[in-house]
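Repro:
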Amino acid sequence: MPYRNIFVANETVLRLKNRQLTADNGEKFTFPVEDIRCIVIDNERSVLSARLISFLAENGVCLIVCDRRRLPSAQLVPTGAYCRVQKRILLQTAQSKPRLKRIWQKIVVQKIENQARCLDLAGKTGAERLFRLAGEVQSGDPTNREGCAARIYFPLLFGGVFTRDSDIEINAALNYGYAVIRAFISKTLAAYGLEPSIGIHHKNQLNAFNLADDLIEPFRPIVDLFAATELLNIDEGFNTAHKAQLVRLLNCAVTVDGERCSLARAVDSLVQSLIYSFENEEIKLRLPEIGEISFFEYE
């Protein structure tokens, strides 16, 4: 099972040799590709061989490339990872609107409940208000309890004047963390033959990752909690060390159906449960529940 997340902050030459990733930035490092879960290239001067990129795709490694502002701008989404892609796409497009609305209801409920837990874990007030809102979510969320919860949640977590569209360091951190998880979800969707552009609730024709934007919602509070409690000195500047910490969130512990697992494993479990819910009468999503920040450590 892949577990290693590699963050490339400085100019590095990356190649494939004997089924291993070799990284040379003055020092040389070697990693078995089978151990790698995610690679983030956080600079514009690194060089990757085409052979390495192809091999990473074959092995389902999530590769994220950042732009000149050092923000995630591209990701590797393997083609042909699943042998019956058309079958899965037809399954997605065959879902009725009422069914999709019920699925979206469950996602929104879990997101708001995780936001409530985030407030509790961060030592903030207001969790009970969010739990009440979660109980009011209807099929398809026509009354926008999700939006109501966000208007309560973010000022309580980050301060009364905070807004998500402010050009401040904490928002840069949130956007970076969300982008890493979104890319990993997109890679996982492709691995199971699902079309990331065909969403449950998100329907933007200009968005190639609508489905990833649906499934990321209950995972967002994990990034929020980490940013609020673990990113030290973030107000002094969002830096490379902060970014490396956010990439590590793929190994953060969450709970799914009472079982403790990594965030990355929870993504895989959620995608599989979505396929089950598409194929069967029963809607049974395996959604993550957040807890105190802790990580799976691997030797």
